[in-house]
Specification:
311 residues; mainly alpha; globular
Length: 311
């Protein structure tokens, strides 16, 4: 009996020694050195330069002059800056609320085996191939109050000047964001949905669960990690919105759609005050980082250890 146990233990130890990957060492730091150097040169170094410029007065031509906390004091008492932060947060929230459900539904549908699914998916993903500038130019022409769609459908759009009011301009920016960026997030959800084990759906079907119950009790819980990742991308993208505002609304009417990134552009590149522009850029970086950390912490994403979706 003892010899039998001894032989089994020896066999188990031999199996552990010979299993695939046993004894493998992790790659050394040398393998990460190129990425670390790239990150240092093109991320950390510019960020440090922006921090230094935020405490100076510089018009972009002469020598920067240290002015202490003057730039930060001016921003604290600047009503346009405070309004731009609230507008940025509003557009970010609207983007997450509108894009998330549409992206999930389209991504889950595209992960199936429906007829003509590949063709329809390719057509819908076309906006993903266009730049934000091209998209903004197209929609500005489509929504032109004199020659665009609103001019022909006055019974629906009234005078047709959708960008002439705060609510109309916010609605247009939200709609254009959904039209352009939903395909990206739908693609992310498509990959996540395809990674869900089919045995879960088969077991649910045996128990009599229909597609709706399977979606809410299997698909959504299994896509938890994907939802968090997609939301973080939406938040960061919403907080850094610039080109769409620049082309469609130019911050108007008045300052109603002046987001923080656009206000930074106005101060730095139109007002030639790169010190204040750098301070605004730092505020944007801090806000985006804090919101991303809150999303990760509240969702419990940082505590997940499983390699399978939703675990």
């Amino acid at each position: 009996m003892t010899s039998l146990a001894t032989s089994r233990g020896a066999a188990g130890r031999a199996a552990r020694r010979t299993r695939p990957g046993a004894g493998a060492t992790r790659p050394g730091f040398v393998w990460a050195l190129p990425a670390a150097v790239f990150f240092l040169l093109f991320a950390l170094t510019p960020l440090l330069l922006v921090v230094v410029l935020s405490f100076t007065s510089w018009d972009g031509i002469g020598e920067p002059r240290f002015n202490g906390l003057d730039n930060w004091t001016a921003l604290i008492h600047d009503p346009v800056m405070l309004q731009s932060i609230w507008t940025t947060l509003l557009l970010t929230v609207l983007g997450v609320v509108t894009q998330t459900p549409v992206s999930i539904l389209l991504g889950v549908w595209a992960a199936g085996r429906q007829r003509n699914r590949a063709v329809l998916s390719a057509i819908y993903f076309v906006p993903l191939l266009l730049s934000a500038t091209a998209v903004s130019v197209v929609w500005r022409a489509v929504l032109d109050p004199n020659f665009g769609v609103p001019a022909e459908l006055t019974w629906l759009f009234g005078d047709g000047n959708l960008l002439g009011t705060r609510s109309g301009a916010i609605g247009v920016l939200t709609f254009v964001g959904v039209w352009q960026f939903t395909p990206l997030h739908a693609l992310i959800y498509q990959g996540g949905a395809r990674a869900i084990p089919q045995v879960l759906y088969q077991a649910a079907a045996v128990d009599g669960a229909g597609r709706v119950r399977q979606f809410f009790h299997i698909t959504l819980p299994q896509l938890r990690n994907t939802v968090i990742t997609s939301m973080i991308l939406m938040v960061v993208g919403g907080l850094t919105t610039f080109d769409t505002v620049l082309i469609l609304t130019q911050g108007g009417p008045g300052n109603d759609t002046t987001v923080t990134a656009y206000y930074m552009y106005q101060k730095a590149f139109k007002g030639f005050d790169f010190g204040v522009g750098s301070a605004i850029a730092l505020v944007l970086v801090v806000v985006a980082t804090l919101i991303s950390l809150v999303v990760v912490r509240v969702s419990g994403y940082d505590k997940m250890r499983g390699t399978t979706e939703g675990l």
